[in-house]
Amino acid sequence: MLDRSTHRDGGGDNLSPVDRRALKRCVEVASRDPMRREQFAAMADDGRTWLEVALSACFAWQTETLRLKPWESPPCTPRDDAAEAFADELAEAGLSAFEPDPMAALAKLGRASAAAPTACVCAAVWATGRGGGHRGAAKAWAGFLCGHNADTTGVVVRLQLADTR
Fold first, then answer.
1. N or C: which end of the chain has fewer CB within 10 A?
2. Domain residues of the chain, as ranges?
3. Residue 14: what pLDDT?
């Protein structure tokens, strides 16, 4: 796996095959968005290396798939203890910290993460049945909150619900 201390310093390309494949998937997935594709082309035109473009794609895509808050960091660039623990957990599972969708990658292995970032509120509402008195109403309410279908939120690994007192 990538030595994150070198990675943070912008050091050399010491990617493992697992990391390189994960970064390639990030570029492929993120490039489906025409604006991102244009951004990556501009980065390459400005002399950025493939690794710099790939890390940018990974950061953008993980931030989106994990629905991170602005102050949270993804496992591909762990800047806090939670992201560092999540990156370590991915490594322990034999996965790269650069997986485009780390939660889905863990789920494919039948593993749940204790260190993953907070799940979106719709997953929390759907899983707990809150929001309407019964599960059907909770699903509808949850889908409204974040704009996606609560039936397809994936594996809920860790939930943090705000205290509403």
1. C
2. 4-108, 118-165
3. 86
